[in-house]
From TrEMBL:
It catalyses: N(2)-acetyl-L-ornithine + 2-oxoglutarate = N-acetyl-L-glutamate 5-semialdehyde + L-glutamate. One of its GO terms (molecular function) is pyridoxal phosphate binding. The modification N6-(pyridoxal phosphate)lysine is found at residue 254. This is Acetylornithine aminotransferase. Pyridoxal 5'-phosphate binds at residues 107-108, 140, 225-228, 283. It comes from Vibrio coralliirubri. The lineage of its organism: Bacteria, Pseudomonadati, Pseudomonadota, Gammaproteobacteria, Vibrionales. May also have succinyldiaminopimelate aminotransferase activity, thus carrying out the corresponding step in lysine biosynthesis. N(2)-acetyl-L-ornithine binds at residues 143, 282. It comes from the Bacteria. Binds 1 pyridoxal phosphate per subunit. It is found in: Cytoplasm. The gene is aruC.
Length: 403
């Protein structure tokens, strides 16, 4: 590489829109749950690209799939279909309640499709007055204007002018508030079956069952945003399968492609009829390259041993975090399920989640935050025991520098 073409972190400030503030290090290589930066320094990856790299970096099944497909065909318009898209759709409908699939490029687009389907169904079947969407405070559903409005964090949606209307936000896990508000005007309830960005908050069994019952009572659709919880993340292929409640529409993305951009909306045949030809679309949705990679991911993740392994790894993380907490008294609790875990900081450590993230990076460990008070862990679903132990050791050393 010539000197003038050398890529440094400072170039970001010159050429990139400043809506991100990336770390100083630039990763250049990954294998499994390990990453190396430009200087050859090694990191253990407990972040997984925010719950995306479900098989780690450069998993052979994914590398083989994209290489093989890259030598066949890359892109087709929606005037025709393709083999990887059809195979992937069949595999997705085989592992869950859904009968029909719409492919997109991201979680936001999958959620956009879900919301548009709900509104279209309500208008077709019940009339234009049935248009209210109920979502939950601290929820996150993407960055398009519709999805960011439905998401329950005003800091992300304010300042862009008038918002899409008829969206109501209620407190998560508050049955009384939901019972008091829902009506026959409600067309859909959208929720994460485990809030991710909002702090790794699990629903109570009573809450999630009541949501389903109230949707049935008021002829409203239940939309599960499984962008972060799906594809094995919680130890079930989709999180709803561990809750005993089935949605009408489900969105999936992030780990569906294991790092290759792809999203999907899953639903029933009856609901799918309301998205007739011309009512919705996506230029790249169902792209052969993306679908070939996602097909390989689904093949690996859907194996019983992979899903069982998620729960085994969860136990290792919880045990390790407990031992760290015994030493430093930093966490009030460890929340979440499977390998979507959040270590909530106690009263003495409020507001210092990013401090932990930065200190971990200095020790060669990549972690995440979920707000100012939760350190988030979303590693590879097949991370090795050795990588977990090494990463927890680095976390121990990082916290020691902050005490």
């Amino acid at each position: 590489m010539t000197v003038e073409n050398k890529v440094e972190r400072s170039l970001f400030n010159e050429v990139m829109v400043p809506c991100y503030n990336p770390m100083e290090m630039i990763p250049v290589k990954g294998e499994g749950a390990r990453v190396w930066d430009q200087q050859g320094r090694e990191y253990i990856d407990f972040a997984g690209g925010i719950a995306v790299s479900c098989l780690g970096h450069c998993h052979p099944a994914m590398v083989n799939a994209v290489t093989e497909q890259a030598n066949k065909i890359w892109h087709l318009s929606n005037v025709m279909t393709n083999e990887p898209a059809l195979r992937l759709a069949k595999k997705l409908t085989d592992v869950c309640f859904a009968e029909k699939v719409f492919f997109a490029n991201s979680g936001a687009e999958a959620n956009e499709a879900a919301l548009k389907l709900a509104r279209r169904w309500a208008a077709d079947v019940h009339g234009p007055e049935k248009s209210e969407i109920i979502a939950f405070k601290q929820g996150f559903h993407g960055r398009t204007f519709f999805t960011v409005t439905v998401g329950g964090q005003e800091a992300y949606s304010d300042g862009f002018g008038p918002k899409p209307g008829d969206v109501t936000h209620l407190p998560y896990n508050d049955i009384a508030a939901l019972e008091a508000h829902i009506s026959d005007r409600t067309c859909a309830i959208m929720m994460e079956p485990l809030q991710g960005e909002g702090g790794i908050i699990s629903p109570t069994s009573e809450f999630v069952n009541t949501v389903r019952e109230l949707c049935d009572k008021h002829n409203a659709l239940l939309i599960f945003d499984e962008v972060q919880t799906g594809n094995g993340r919680t130890g079930n292929f989709y999180a709803y399968q561990g809750l005993g409640v089935t949605p009408d529409i489900l969105s999936t993305a992030k780990s569906l492609g294991g790092g290759f951009p792809i999203g999907a909306m899953l639903t029933t045949s009856e609901l799918a009829t309301h998205l007739k030809v011309g009512t919705h679309g996506s230029t790249y949705g169902g792209n052969p390259l993306a679908c070939a990679v996602a097909e390989a991911v689904v093949d690996v993740v859907s194996q019983p041993e992979t899903l069982a392994g998620v729960k085994e790894r969860e136990a290792l993380f919880r045990d390790g975090l407990t031992k760290i907490n015994d030493k430093y008294q930093i966490f009030s609790e460890v929340r979440g399920k499977g390998l979507l875990l959040g270590a909530a900081l106690n009263e003495e450590w409020q507001g210092r989640a990013r401090d932990v993230l930065v200190a971990a990076g200095e020790q060669g460990l990549m972690v995440l935050v979920a707000g100012a008070n939760v350190v988030r862990f979303t590693p590879s679903l097949v991370i090795t025991t050795q990588e977990i132990e090494e990463g927890l050791s680095k976390l121990d050393k990082a916290i020691a520098t902050l005490v």
